[in-house]
What we know:
Number of helices: 22
Bound molecules: alpha-methylisocitric acid, iron/sulfur cluster
Structural class: alpha/beta
Largest sheet: 7 strands, mixed, barrel
Subunit structure: Monomer.
CATH architecture of the domain at 466-638: Alpha-Beta Barrel
Shape: globular
Family: Belongs to the aconitase/IPM isomerase family.
Distance between the termini: 41 Å
Keywords: Iron, Iron-sulfur, Metal-binding
Strand order of the largest sheet: 21-22-23-24-27-26-25
Protein name: Aconitate hydratase
Helix content: 25-40%
Oligomer: single chain
Cofactor: [4Fe-4S] cluster
Amino acid sequence: MAGTITEKILKKHIAEGIPKAGEEVAIIIDHTLTQDATGTMAYLQFEVIGINRIKTELSVSFVDHNTLQTDFKNPDDHRYLQTVAAKYGLYFSRPGNGICHQVFLERFACPGKTLIGSDSHTPTAGGIGSFAIGAGGLDVAVSMAGETFKLKYPKVVGVKLSGKLQEWVSAKDVILEVLRRINVNGGVGKVLEYCGDGVKNLSVPDRATITNMGTETGCTTSIFPSDEITREFLKGQGRENQWVEIIPDENADYDEIIEINLNEVEPMVALPHSPGNVKKVAEIAGLKVDQVSIGSCTNSSLRDLIIVAKAIKGKTVSENLHMTISAGSRQVVEHLIESGDMKHLVNAGARMLENTCGPCIGMGSAPCSKGISVRTFNRNFEGRSGTKDAKTYLVSPETAVATAITGVLTDPRTLGKYPEFEMPHKFIVNDNMIIKPLPLEKAKKVQVQFGPNIAPLPDFFPLEDELSGEALIKLQDNITTDHIMPAGAKILPLRSNVPEISKHIFEAVDSNFYERAKEKNGGFIVAGDNYGQGSSREHAALAPKYLGVKAVIVKSFARIHLANLINFGIVPLTFKNPEDYEKIDVGDELIITIGDLMGKIILKNVTKNIEIQVTHALSESDAEILKMGGKLSWIKSKIKY
Ligand code: MIC
Ligand code: SF4
């Protein structure tokens, strides 16, 4: 059978299981990454596992999310992360060095390696040919302890690219086109593998924009071949020795094919409040805009900011709006300074922010009330910007800069002559903000430093055979983890404090949930399709667990959230007949007999006196983990110290 890239990489990493779509396989993890908002929890869990050094080839801890330091909490967490990295043998990318995915791509990612990261956009490294998967922090902790990572062997979709992008059209428009076609759940259970002649016309950062935002399709990951273009990129980063060629066999056997002719792609935009709500910019051009934000792990590479700088050179940001720019890394900033492009951005009146996630996660720069924000980011969920009634539109850097100049949503092709620019062949490499792992003897002496906001992990107990309680909440389709556990400047600093962060659960959709869950001593969550899409934050499972939620009953789950529920001992059930969703109302008393989870599961709606058929897709090891009360108890019972 002719091999895809996915097959080739997984074949070398499978430790257990059969490589057949839908079957569970355990893969060896070479690299891991964490960021600060999920990292604190991941390392608290790693410390509970109790080994004295990471067992992966390479693990990197980044600080890029919680950088607004309005009090002691975030800086205390940064100090905790730095001391943990020193103690356990990790690289530490200091605050100010850049966004985890951009820096990882520049300085660490290698073709052919497996990577898991406690951030849903970890597939950014797929742009260089790494098999990179987003996961919950506990899964990353377990991988650092040397355990394999389990996943359902994916179907492989060949996204066949032909032709070349037109001027003013870029990689973001390609991924928006993919989202227009397959929407926010079209990638579930699949890898989007890019192939075809058009691939050679995309640079590594272009490819990384596409694999980054592939996450929004719900896919397991996205990946590009590792070819001569990859080699050139690695050479430019002084890492040519890490290049290996990974290309699909001719006539590789894809489960599905999506064909995209790059010549025909137009500037695209995702409308509020879903990255899958895509139209052509030309269809809604003229919309009055209050804010333009350029950056995020999707569009903050040197190429993206050079095009913005060249397009805005000599002009001023429209009076209608304000414009923020966050570069992806210090390397990008150093180049912008050296080439003089930084001057054009500053001259034009752009507000230059830190090289962090910033506005993407509501860490400052929220739009005004009912504001229209045009962003080069990857998510436009309701309230995510920090302003509940703001509306976010997702676009390419070209469309964003055109909009910043005119003050209304603008098709960049109307700007006229496309700026000329050349990318450097050698990047400015300066790793002085990356602290290297300490040798074991020195590491042993490091004292991990905790701030007062870091709370110990709650205890998790084995599951009983029968679960009972009330349906506490009933939700629609496509509920995101931002709905379940909001982010933003006020709540993010509580990521290392489960009791405190739990007070904010479902805040945006049901302001009484916390009190109700407390009063009822836990219960059940009921929802529609694609429950838990978006961020990998395990707090969206940890907080419900802490409040006594025993099971979540939905029409279907998003991948990472499903894994997080299992990891924290919440039973993830699906309706056998989706229409039975109508048979449970908030306040109904439910009894669910789960037994050992491998037999028939009976859900009794006591209030309505009916039985509802529910099922799950749990493997035997998932069931074992759940019955033990979660993955932490399971790993502790398994590891040989
Ligand atoms: C996001 O983009 O939503 C985040 C913030 O990067 C999350 C991680 C988190 O919630 O900390 C993600 O994408 O996984
Ligand atoms: Fe940061 Fe936004 Fe990327 Fe998440 S999507 S890692 S918040 S830049």
